[in-house]
Amino acid sequence: MDRFKKHTAPLAAISLYLKGIYAEAMARGYAFDKSKINPARKAVSLTVTAGQMAYEWTHLLTKLSVRNPALYRKWRNVEVPEAHPMFTVHAGDVEPWERY
Hints:
The protein is globular. The protein is 48% helix and 8% strand. By secondary structure, it is mainly alpha-helical. The mean pLDDT is 91. Helix 3 (50-67) runs antiparallel to helix 4. The chain has two domains: 1-44, no CATH class; 45-100, no CATH class. The chain has helices at residues 2-5, 10-28, 50-67, 69-75, and strands spanning 46-49, 87-90. The protein contains four helices and two strands, in the order H-H-E-H-H-E.
């Protein structure tokens, strides 16, 4: 949430992020109430570090290995996942807000 709070248009950033989540949910056949997403009034983009992406991916795989072993096996060989379309990935470490 810190990333969104620091953005110059935080509500638009959150709305665009959730639209991407909605699209992925539909592709996977999940239920997601699109009516709760506010319309984004402008196009925005955010940056994320490669270190943060790696940290979050490792965290997700660890959870999947316990909660959904079949899905873990499907994704475990992916080294670098595709970022949400609104994110630009650049070099850098894990964000300071993470507790690890």
